[in-house]
Amino acid sequence: MRTNNQRGFSLLELIASLAIVSLVSAALFQSIAAWMQLSARASAAAEGSLSAIAGQRMFDRIVGGLTFAWPEEDAFRFVGAADGFSGVAAAPLHGFHPHLAPVRVIVRRPDGEERGRITYQSGDIEWALQALDGTAALSYLGADGVWRSTWPPAANPEPGPFDDAAYFDTPQLPLAIRASFSDGDASSAWIADISGHPRIPQRLRDLE
């Protein structure tokens, strides 16, 4: 007679196999969960970096487009403080073509909100440039290389060893504007030059 050498798994072997599969599954699940958390953090960091870069580029464009106000328009003359500035831009951020428009950049923390932001305003337009986890302050560079918390300064910045500043009015615009950010031990800054429109825009009536 032919004997049958085949046999099935014993209950002990089946339990051991299930235990091994469970351990491998648990380890795989933990690895996937850790990878997903790491991926989410990397995605959030990348999104924050892109947002900061976009905000800085918009800040550069706003500051670079600032220009002098006409003498009779005192309301549009550039005024700067630690919590914001206002003036006239020859190339406003929201425009598709160059045109003169009043603009404001404000550092504020709305009531009831934990996070602040830097916003851009021009007419009915208001855009957020940067969300703030900490604090931010603006400062203004004079011809003497000194950053000031307000503009215009109390005294005309002297550009060099010669006292030429005594014979000229304080310029309407600083040379550059800096936005300084602080969040605990971390700090950073945006610096933008006012170099695109250094003179008062001419009008036909000014040539008469």
Largest sheet: 6 strands, antiparallel
Radius of gyration: 31 Å
First-last Cα distance:
127 Å
The number of helical elements comes to: 2
Kindly estimate the percentage of residues that lie in beta strands according to DSSP: 25-35%
**Mean pLDDT across all amino acids:** 77
**Net shape:** elongated
Tell me the total number of β-strands. 10
Order of helices and strands: HEEEEEEEEEEH
Provide the domain count: 1
Which regions contain 5 or more consecutive residues with pLDDT less than 50? none
Amount of helix: 25-40%
Which secondary-structure class do the elements indicate? alpha+beta
What's the quick description here?
Helix content is 28%, strand content 28%. The chain has 208 residues and is α+β, with helices and mostly antiparallel strands.
Topology overview:
Layout: H1 11-64, E1 66-67, E2 79-81, E3 84-89, E4 101-108, E5 116-122, E6 125-132, E7 135-141, E8 147-148, E9 176-183, E10 186-193, H2 204-207
Antiparallel strand pairs: 1-3, 2-3, 3-4, 4-5, 5-6, 7-8, 7-9, 9-10
